[in-house]
TrEMBL record:
Gene Ontology biological process: fatty acid metabolic process
InterPro entries: AMP-bd_C, AMP-bd_C_sf, AMP-binding_CS, AMP-dep_synth/lig_dom, ANL_N_sf
Span of domain AMP-binding enzyme C-terminal: 275-346
Chain segments annotated as transmembrane: 64-85
Protein name: Acyl-CoA synthetase
Classification via CDD domains: AFD_YhfT-like (cd17633)
Species assigned in the record: Bacillus toyonensis
């Protein structure tokens, strides 16, 4: 990919040209297909650093713990942003729960970047960290029940989570005091971001109405590198979407229902796997779960569950019957010892789907 990147480097190094020059090449997580290469310019990173101050209320004096490896874009961001403003940064070579907790006990850590699956592992260590610190989580929705549980480990910590994407960087932030009131929300737009929800015609919808999430900010990536060409995803009026589906409530909180490409078309009705997963994760006997769409001769597609945990099929069906519309309830249930994840910590939906189709590593 080097020749494709070189053509976008400035021929003369001025301050202005360097701001807009490629600074970082990354790859999307590939949770639903092949990972795509993309470029980000220096200036987009600088604008995203502003969110640390204005939305997460961080200070230059903070000491940052990066709980995972720099392969994950969240941890890479945490390290680079800390160095940019002159903060102290501690980087773990590998995520090992007891070593992370040891570090928190022995160092004056005030901010930790992490993801929900890591926090679950820290919870299972059954230890208490009394630091007055901030926990910043992203990569997946931090479910309300999991947030409540983690208070037993970090009783004095402030909890922050944000919604974003490789292409968009920060979009919304949910701060601790708002999390209890709006546990299913991903928060309000960051201070330098605009969000609107649009229908298929690109028209903005009413509050509470589901549509595609569009974003406008100075944090966008430059584009994907496709067929040796840098392809921008901007609309004519400067907005961008990664095809996430959601809605905005009357107070301006944003809710993500799912992603268009994950949507299951069940008998002509749109079913979003993330909604079902979010509910079933609250069942005490479910450790992890993924919902995928499998072809069906009658319905077209049907929602199918892949579960890690001790729950039985009947328990989960009964749980769903009380809480979900019938068309959203998984039609088949498969149980596994391990849910597949990408290198960036997201559920590998393509791999999960192939496990069912090929009858690999599953049991009824």
């Amino acid at each position: 990919l080097a020749p494709q990147v070189e053509k976008y480097l400035p021929t003369h190094s001025t301050v202005e040209s360097l701001r807009h020059a490629p600074f970082y090449m990354g790859f999307t997580s590939g949770s639903t297909g092949k990972a795509k290469a993309f470029l980000r310019a220096q200036q987009s990173w600088v604008h995203s650093f502003d969110c640390n101050i204005h939305d997460f209320h961080m200070k230059k004096e903070d000491s940052i713990l990066i709980a995972g490896t720099l392969v994950h874009s969240l941890f890479l961001y945490g390290a680079i942003s800390a160095l940019y403003v002159g903060q102290t940064v501690h980087i773990m070579r590998k995520f090992i729960p007891d070593q992370v907790l040891d570090k928190l006990e022995t160092e004056n850590i005030s901010v930790m970047y992490t993801v929900p699956t890591m926090l679950e592992s820290l919870y299972k260590e059954n230890r208490v960290i009394e630091n007055k610190m901030k926990i910043i989580s992203s990569g997946a929705k931090w479910e309300a029940e999991a947030k409540e549980k983690i208070k037993s480990v970090f009783p004095y910590a402030q909890k922050y989570e944000f919604y974003g994407a490789s292409e968009l960087s920060f979009v919304t932030a949910l701060v601790d005091e708002e999390s209890d009131r709006r546990p299913n929300s991903v928060g309000k737009p960051c201070h330098n971001v605009q969000v609107r929800i649009c229908n298929e015609e690109g028209e903005e919808v009413q509050k509470g109405e589901i549509g595609t999430v569009y974003v406008k900010s100075d944090q966008f990536f430059m584009g994907y590198i496709l067929d040796k060409v840098l392809v921008s995803e901007l609309t004519a009026d400067g907005w961008m979407t990664v095809r996430d589906v959601g809605y905005e409530d009357e107070e301006g909180f944003i809710y993500i229902v799912g992603r268009e490409k994950n949507m299951i078309l069940f008998g002509g009705i749109n079913v979003y796997p993330e909604e079902i997963e979010s509910l079933l994760c609250t069942h005490p006997a479910v450790e992890e779960i993924v919902i995928v769409g499998i072809k069906d001769s009658y319905w077209g597609e049907k929602p199918v569950a892949i579960v890690k945990g001790s729950a039985t099929k009947q328990q989960l069906k009964s749980f769903c019957l009380q809480r979900l519309a019938s068309f959203k309830i998984p039609k088949d249930w498969h149980f596994v010892d391990k849910i597949p994840y990408t290198n960036s910590g997201k559920i590998a939906r393509v791999v999960a789907k192939s496990m069912i189709e090929n009858r690999e590593k599953i049991h009824e």
